[in-house]
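Checked the freezer inventory, then went back to the computational side. Two predictions to log before the end of the day. The first one is the construct we discussed on Monday; recording sequence and tokens without edits.
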Amino acid sequence: MADRKKPSGKQVAPAIGYDSMLSGVVNLLEQARRTSVRAVNAIMTATYWEIGRRIVEFEQGGEARAEYGSSLIKRVAQDLSTRFGRGFSKRNVEQMRLFYLKWPIAQTVSAQLDQTPVITEFVRAFPLPWSHYVCLLSIDNHEARRFYEEEALRGGWSVRQLNRQVSTLFYERTTVSRNKAAMLKKGGKPLPEDAVSPEEELKDPLVLEFLGLKDEYSENDLEEALIRHLETFLLELGGDFTFVGRQRRLRIGDSWYRVDLLFFHRRLRCLVVIDLKLGTFTHADAGQMHMYLNYAREHWTHPEENPPVGLILCAQKDHALAHYALENLPNKVLAAEYKLALPDEKALVAEIDKTRRALERRAQVKKP
């Protein structure tokens, strides 16, 4: 009689039906994440509409008045940013004001904001996410704006699809088309690049700002530590560097970017934009830096200040590089002055190497 095998202590999940069960769990989690995002978006959109209403009514009894509105928007943006941090720039607060003016809904939502929030009422009043309304606010034509809103609702468009349709003049093309039904059917189909995953929805910058969360968790721990050390190192060089911000976010078109460090150099009277890379330096890094500098010169630089300068730092494992982007300066004299006043690139490279090695040794010691 053959010996029976003794059952092992390790339990193996039955293969039959496991894939189906796992698929169901994955779908459940994804649906829960999307439901959470929709709930946050509904409350966020209703809150921003209410903020816009209160600003407009404070301006002039509910009537818009441009000359007073601009200074009021600026003051509100400054006070809210001081108290709540990101998400309340002058541009964002102005969008809330315009949102109220262009979407005159029933006052029931406004009344509920002072009571216990009822999410279903918010969804009914504002069925699209706030990022969709931000896109729609950029459309001046009332009919076109209503068309895109209705089509986004009917077709369940993601914000990527909505932005793509607006940028390719889908409304104008549909208007002049002889077969509008075919145009709507064909044009409303999403493309693969229009898809947005639940993770991307949760990490939407607008959602993160509203919840008061930071998106630095997506950055490498080593990079974050290097940035913090570099900030301290530059401040210790003397009184010329003044700290402005870390992970300073900017929006160009429909894309969000982040500047690792932003300083102001008192003697040069200019901003210093610093970008840290953990990999090899590429021409794309230089192009991105010049894009940052163009944005900083237009949006962050005051009239009496000199053009900003960029510092690209590459901290790859076997080689470090520091390079100042000075090509955009208006004359060679100014460029020479910048080179004399800014820290030596070799000193920066040495500091990056020393800090990286110290951080890596510390990480090895912490490992069990």
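The second is the one RB wanted added to the comparison set:
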Amino acid sequence: MKAKVTRATAALSLFLSILLAAAWSISGATKPAAAPKKNLPYVYTRWKQFTVKDGLPNDHIFAVKADGPRVWVGTEDGLACIDKATGKIQKWTEKDGLPWRAVTGIDVNKKTGEVWLALFGGGLARFSGGRFDHWHQLNSGLVNDVVYAVAIENDNVWAATTAGASRYNTITGEWTIYTEKNAPMEEIWNYGVNYNDGKVYLAVWGSGVLEFDIATQKWKEYLDPDGEMEIDLYRDDGIVHVITTGVSYVENVLWVSSYFGVCRYDGRHWRGFFSKEGGLPNEFTNNVKARSANEAWFCTDKGLGVIVDFPTNTWVQYTAGPNPPAGKAVVKQGTETLETVELGVGVPHTFIICADIDGKDAWVGTSKGLGWAIGDDYYAGLRARPVHITAGSKK
């Protein structure tokens, strides 16, 4: 009896298939095609979110630094360390010896493993061997206690402060202060600092980007040539604006974030990017982290803008959805939307403050939590793959 039912079902299925094919033929319609393939960038579709519910001391994330199996997180109310293998979080607040509650910058000395912390109002701290050491205006050569960012340069530690930059030699104990008196700073409000390939770069409010060559001890300044404070008057003539917030130098390319757009400099040519032209979510940019000469992550107040392929001006925008933890990723090439991907879990919030690259992964700090973008199958540039367009989006 069972065999007869199976044969009858198969016959009915075949008959329905023939009728369906005939209907398509009579109507002149074509069968639904598979998703078309286009050259598209990698889109992070696997995200994990971390908040106070998971053990962070605060959801307002100021800084994040990947450190091998660990990730260090600076928040408005303490320091945290995430074990990537287990997901466990250890945290330190002022009750645990942290010298100041707000941690706005983090860097790790690769030779010693020491973790250096920029403290917003509390100076500079070093975490090593389970102990915090503390430097401030009253016990050191730190120029100001409001420290936005920190960077390791050989045996030196650079601190970007609201009143200039300080350089501390960890071997000799010597301090050097850089202000308008001995550096080309029209303003002394230092937002960001980055070291790579023998040069230190400072992002300075009102003074663009300053480059310090370690070998020659000489400065070089990058200022907006047209001198306009509100707009970029002449396209690609230099840095887009003098109010810079972040700088990231990699593979001989300088990436810069500002309050009025972002830009790229390869040593010969400048290129500015603005939201009206497509990829950048908004001009007001808090920070930047570059992965390569062709890829950089810009942290804006309206989402994360990742330029994933500079030659083709291809971007991926990541934003949070109205129903957390869901989010959305939009692939844009110029002003054209190539792909829209709905994410079950995305960035924790659309106000993006900081980011760091961790091999194929990335970490994103927001005003309401930390996001871990997991990219086991990450690839750089563009690759032929199916297009995913959600309802209501234009191809």
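For RB: The radius of gyration is 25 Å. The CA atoms of residues 62 and 104 lie 5 Å apart. Let me know if you want it refolded.
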